[in-house]
Amino acid sequence: LPSPQIFDVLPPLHELLARIDHSSSGPSDSTNTNPPAETGVAYVDQQPLDPKDLPNEILPIKGRIRRALKKLEELPDMDRTVEEQREEIEDLEARIQAQREML
C-alpha cells in the first residue's frame, strides 16, 4: 500500500492559499477591512504571494495530486465496479454462513 503522506495535499494547499496577498488583487467589496485574527497565523514567517504568481506556485501541489492519483490507480480492485464488489461480499458472506452451519 502507498504511504498515507502521498495523499496529504491539504496542508501545502492551505499554506499556499494563506500566503495569497489579497490586498494586491484590487478593492474589496467587503466593508470589513480587518481579516479574522486566525487567518494566516500559522504562516506569519511566509512571504505574501501575489495572485499573479499563483499558477507557478501551485505546480508542486498539482504534481503531488497527480502522483496520488497514479498510486490510487495502482491499488488492487480499483477497476472493479461497486456491484462486482457487492456480489463478492454476498458470496463470501454465504460461505461464512455455510461454514458456521457446519460447525
TrEMBL record:
GO terms for biological process: regulation of transcription by RNA polymerase II. The gene is MED9. Its main location: nucleus. GO terms for molecular function: transcription coregulator activity. It is found in: Nucleus. Component of the Mediator complex, a coactivator involved in the regulated transcription of nearly all RNA polymerase II-dependent genes. Mediator functions as a bridge to convey information from gene-specific regulatory proteins to the basal RNA polymerase II transcription machinery. Mediator is recruited to promoters by direct interactions with regulatory proteins and serves as a scaffold for the assembly of a functional preinitiation complex with RNA polymerase II and the general transcription factors. Keywords: Activator, Coiled coil, Nucleus, Transcription, Transcription regulation. The lineage of its organism: Eukaryota, Fungi, Dikarya, Ascomycota, Pezizomycotina. InterPro entries: Med9. Residues 23-36 have a biased composition (Polar residues). It comes from Polychaeton citri CBS 116435. Component of the Mediator complex. Belongs to the Mediator complex subunit 9 family. One of its GO terms (cellular component) is mediator complex. Residues 20-40 are annotated as: Disordered. This is Mediator of RNA polymerase II transcription subunit 9. Residues 75-102 form a coiled coil. Pfam families: Med9.
